[in-house]
Design goal:
Blueprint (H helix, E strand, L loop, with lengths): L8 E4 L8 E7 L2 E6 L5 E5 L3 E3 L8 H4 L3 H4 L8 E3 L3 E5 L2 H13 L4 E5 L5 H12 L3 E5 L20 H14 L7 E4 L6 H7 L3 E2 L11 H10 L9 H6 L9 E2 L7 E3 L3
Parallel strand pairs: 7-8, 7-9, 9-10, 10-11
Antiparallel strand pairs: 1-2, 1-5, 2-3, 3-4, 6-13, 11-12
Helix pairs in contact: 4-5
């Protein structure tokens, strides 16, 4: 059997090697895994794993194109004040990647790492302090099919925690145009998150979403003219998972446009 260590990058033969993981722990013949590009935890027998070269595993550059070019910002004549983002994430590694993504796009963003169950008790104080245009509430989730219906939020790892946090945020600011809420993670209950007050949420088809998908949505909205309604299909198409992974309601952008530069 191939020798594996914590920190190795691997794929699983039984899943056609479709997802990259890092080994976070090994207990006997079982490896505990964390998705590199997907917000996903898993475990696997060591015999099912294959090591992967670290290069080309992180796919941020392939997944995210230059949003400023796609939104046709005229840098010669106008100046722009993008919307402000508060990104709350249950995973420190994914938070770091999202913050780097915002930085590349010159978007003002504040990052906060909190356990999913703690977000609801902390979020209001940060909304008051930072007054963001967009709040992202994400981390890890999972739908446990063996437990039963996907309509029951008790059959999810963290959907109920995300719903509670969304309700607090929406109670703080009821106007969808004044506070855009992007909530959920892999396999979250999309319908209940939308009902709770999310503007965008995962996951309509209960699939795994990319680590950057919430940040892609947030960035698109932060860089879109606040006087214009976003093209809902276009913004969803910018994500890795598309409309199967994230859905939402019509809203306006958050960016002020000024002249002259």
């Amino acid at each position: 059997m191939m020798l594996f260590r914590v920190g190795d990058i691997v794929t699983r033969n039984s899943y056609q090697n479709d997802t990259f993981f890092v080994i976070t722990d090994i207990d006997g013949n079982v490896a505990y895994l964390k998705g590199i590009n997907l917000r996903l935890f898993a475990d696997s027998d060591l015999s099912d794993l294959v090591k992967v070269e670290e290069k080309n595993v992180i796919d941020d550059d392939r997944v995210t194109s230059n949003l400023t070019e796609q939104l046709n910002l005229d840098r010669n004549e106008y100046f722009y004040l993008p919307g402000k983002i508060l990104h709350i994430d249950g995973d420190e590694d994914y938070l770091s990647r999202c913050m780097n993504f915002y930085k590349k796009l010159s978007i003002m963003a504040y990052g906060l790492c909190l356990k999913e169950e703690d977000i609801k008790t902390e979020i209001e104080s940060y909304l008051k302090k930072l007054n963001p245009d967009i709040v992202v509430i994400t981390g890890h989730d999972a739908y446990y099919r063996r437990k039963g219906s996907q309509d029951n939020i008790q059959n999810y790892k963290n959907t109920s925690n995300f719903i509670d946090a969304v309700k607090v945020a929406r109670s703080f600011e009821k106007n969808q145009d004044k506070l855009i809420i992007i909530a959920g993670a892999c396999q979250s209950n999309y319908e209940e998150l939308i009902k709770a007050g999310s503007t965008f949420a995962s996951s309509p088809k209960r699939i795994n979403i990319h680590a950057l998908d919430p940040a892609i949505i947030a960035s698109y909205l932060a860089l879109y003219d606040r006087n214009k309604t976003v093209d809902l299909l276009d913004v969803l198409a910018k994500t890795k998972s598309g409309a199967d992974g994230i859905g939402g309601v019509m809203t306006k952008g958050c960016m002020f446009v000024g002249y002259p530069r």
